[in-house]
Amino acid sequence: MNKLIACCGLNCETCDAYIATIQNSDELRKQTAEKWGKMYHAPEIKAESINCTGCRSAGVKFAHCYECKIRTCVTSKGFETCGECSSLETCKIVAMVHQYVPEALNNLKAFN
């Protein structure tokens, strides 16, 4: 399975934090912090915290991703992604992601 597909099915390759990290761009980090701060009503997000190499990849994680309940659940079950779980389509933990980003569910189904 592609390591850039997150535990929940999001594609890390298209994530602003991942892109800023891979490009090592402080300007993209600043733009991402501002965008996410407004989008998620989280002014505490600072440019210096925008560093992530992907949910399931070795390396640095954005704080939210590192503490993610979905990621914690997946790893506690010994899975790589939610796609391995029999509760995938009824799980309340990952449902919010799939409600707003249906392609994440499709990503998981494509690998099973």
Number of helices: 6
Would you count the extended β strands for me? 0
Helix content: 40-55%
Question: What is the SS-derived class?
Answer: mainly alpha
Hey, roughly how much beta strand do the residues contain? Answer: under 5%
| Rg | 14 Å
Q: Give a short account of the largest sheet.
A: none
Shape from CA axes?
Answer: globular
State the end-to-end CA separation: 9 Å
Domain module count: 1
Low-pLDDT regions: none
Question: Can you give the mean pLDDT?
Answer: 92
Helix/strand order, N-terminal first: HHHHHH
Structure overview:
The model has no long low-confidence stretch (mean pLDDT 92). The protein starts with 15 loop residues before the first helix and ends with a helix. It is globular and about 40 Å long. It has helices at residues 16-22, 26-39, 63-66, 69-76, 92-100, 102-110. Helix content is 46%, strand content 0%. α1 (16-22) runs antiparallel to α2. It has one domain. The chain is mainly α and 112 residues long.
